[in-house]
């Protein structure tokens, strides 16, 4: 479960921004929209968070910051020595452009709270740390910092971190994380942290688009096909069944022999799938192909497979523009799946950006601590803040207040043709 994400000096997020999933003391919808952690420091977390803001306000940068952090954790130990990172600091002032980008996440795995972060320049990692809360008091398992005077990384290790930590530190390249290197060298103590990024954090955005493969695999199983079709039926989409037909097709593959330098092209078999949708209405029935279905139906279908798996395994799902090609009622239904204790049995969480303001006043959908905004400042830096900062009344019309600019984070349209006066 994700507790908090911090980022500083990444794209438009110049100053430190904090997305917290710690539930407030408000008891509204507490038995539905919050998760109990068993930890005194953060006893309850929200199951979902929605982020609003104008176009180019920085919403997508927040998602990309978490995604870039994930990528560095997963890939830094295997990239070539000397390869630079594509990290982008805030470039509209000279001071920030020279400073490192900073990332930190706090999360829970198997009842243990971890607080992990690092700072990086394009050429190297400049600091890295891990705090572990086995009890209320944190244990600083390791801290790494780059010493410019000596040009070397300085490590401080805790006795609580077991294993060959000095050897792992000496094996860590300047452009690699100690965490990633240590896990590659079989650190079992640090594996839960690495695995959270590898298998418990799922991100869909422009850089990581939703594909059909996972849903297709679920459709091949009777239970998975039933769950998907049941949701589509409940969503008033007249699909009673989906059939998956697979076949082998020839394809060309290029093989490179590193010993001889020989390149060989081979004909191999690849698996190709086709989907057939059975539609049933009061007046008849028909079987359609995937190409016959609307873009919205395809998006919903390809999202359903991962969502059902995430709900079962208790993962954290982050989606940029969840409402793309989806009707607002379908977005509400997906959000409610994360809120329903009988469906979300694994403690899954959903974080998403959207422009669908009708969700703000959807009855019983969000608590006030689940609603966030991103606003672009005059200097082009982005600020993330919670609706709680405005202390709205319990029955306040949030959609109307947001569109009137009461909470900020809306586009300024004055002077444009057709703009409201």
Explain the overall architecture:
- There is one protein chain.
- The chain is 25% helix and 31% strand.
- The protein contains eleven helices and 18 strands.
- A hairpin with a 4-residue loop joins β7 and β8.
- α7 packs across α9 and α8 crosses α9.
- The two termini are 44 Å apart.
List keywords for this structure.
421 residues; 7-stranded antiparallel beta sheet
SSE layout and pairing:
Layout: E1 2-8, E2 17-20, H1 30-33, E3 34-36, E4 44-46, E5 48-52, H2 59-75, H3 94-98, E6 101-109, E7 112-120, E8 125-133, E9 139-147, E10 152-157, H4 165-171, H5 178-184, H6 191-199, E11 201-204, H7 213-219, H8 222-234, E12 239-256, E13 263-281, E14 284-289, H9 295-313, E15 316-319, H10 328-339, E16 349-353, E17 371-376, E18 382-386, H11 398-403
Parallel strand pairs: 5-16, 5-17, 11-15, 15-16
Antiparallel strand pairs: 1-2, 1-6, 3-4, 6-7, 7-8, 8-9, 9-10, 12-13, 13-14, 17-18
Helix pairs in contact: 7-9, 8-9
Question: Helical stretch count?
Answer: 11
pLDDT averaged over residues: 91
Biggest beta-sheet profile: 7 strands, antiparallel
Which residues form runs of ≥5 with pLDDT under 50?
Answer: none
Q: Give the number of DSSP strands.
A: 18
**Share of helix, binned:** 25-40%
Strand proportion, as a percent range, falls in 25-35%
Return the string of H and E elements.
EEHEEEHHEEEEEHHHEHHEEEHEHEEEH
Order of strands, main sheet, comes to 2-1-6-7-8-9-10
As a whole number of angstroms, the C-alpha radius of gyration is 24 Å
Helix vs. strand class? alpha+beta
The shape is: globular
How many angstroms separate the termini?
44 Å
